[in-house]
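Researcher: Let's try something more involved. This one mixes different molecule types, so please make sure each is placed in the same coordinate frame as the others.
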Amino acid sequence: MTTTVSAKRLSTRYLSAERVAEIVRRKGIGNCIAGVASYIHHDFLRWHDFEKCARVAHHSDVGVIELMPVSDARSYAFKYVNGHPSNHRFNLPTVMAFGVLADVETGTPDLVSELTLTTAIRTAAMSAVAARALARDNVRSMALIGNGAQSEFQALAFHHLLGVQRFHLFDLDAAATRKLAANLTRMALDFACFDSVRDAVRGCDIVTTVTAAKTKAAVLTADMIEPGMHINAVGGDCPGKTELHADVLRLGPVFCEFEPQSRIEGDMQQMPADFPVTELWQVLAGRALGRTAADQVTIFDSVGFALEDYSALRYMRDLAQELGMGEELSLIPALEDPKNLFGYIPAEAPAAKAARKAPAEVI
Ligand code: NAD
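Model: All components are placed in one shared frame. Result:
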């Protein structure tokens, strides 16, 4: 009897930061955000296919380093990501990341990719997927509170996927707002700069908070929120790190990505354990209600979930294949006999052999 074993190739594709930037340039940033949003939507509808867990976080006084794993029957993904709000002191970004997509059948790492740029794209895509399900119709304006690395991506996602036409900008750091203003000008997007959060959010359909500070901040207070607003809270994503005053969370239904993780890390960490919250996938799948009235306030308490990175890695892998981009990485030894790992080490050169007089000392 013969057994047929399907052929598996040992090959790991590597996408550097430069390569991903080039892929995004060639495809167009709006198309990439839309593409990742559609992969996220698709994967959220397959919610029960995935083995999920809250991310594993290692905290220090100044930041956090996290591992974010998730898998289905076909692929396993993880992301390494940090959050260090004071990193600008060293001229480094607050958030830096890379990740892996692996074949579940063999454990072969199929893709190793940068995820700093990709995280900004996937976070913006996730925000837009949530807002499409939760915000009222015909949104036109969005306040962007926090004008750092993520902010342009948020603006583009809401412009391309929801039709937002005008952005109200505020950051404690005026230089960050100038940077965002310059980039929005380059993209021909309409905006205005404000001197306070209160002034920036007034009259907006959507309020996105994407600030970074390792503290229990209350960037938004309940008296700033108007009927019908959708709040996209992105920056409160760690124990002891919030953006919304607790009263904001009482203004309307709260939605999250993966409840066990969000209760620890989201703005809802301030609320009691039985505080009602709905996982977004349920709304996308038509199993739970989203917004029920145009004047209702809706809140997406985003923290970033491993499944979004799984979707983004899949998207980048597919795009890299389509565009023929990325390098082959020699990450795992290619063995003629998989049991002869030792044989992979080149034979010692005769000179080195002769020079070796005595066995190595064991200390
Ligand atoms: P960044 O450091 O580049 O920018 C953050 C900006 O927030 C800075 O310009 C800072 O001056 C400003 N800021 C801080 N406190 C403020 C306040 N009270 N009011 C107004 N502005 C304030 O960081 P980034 O890469 O843009 O990330 C922003 C936040 O988003 C971080 O907290 C990060 O952890 C979080 N994040 C969340 C997700 C997610 O999936 N939910 C993904 C990526 C990043």
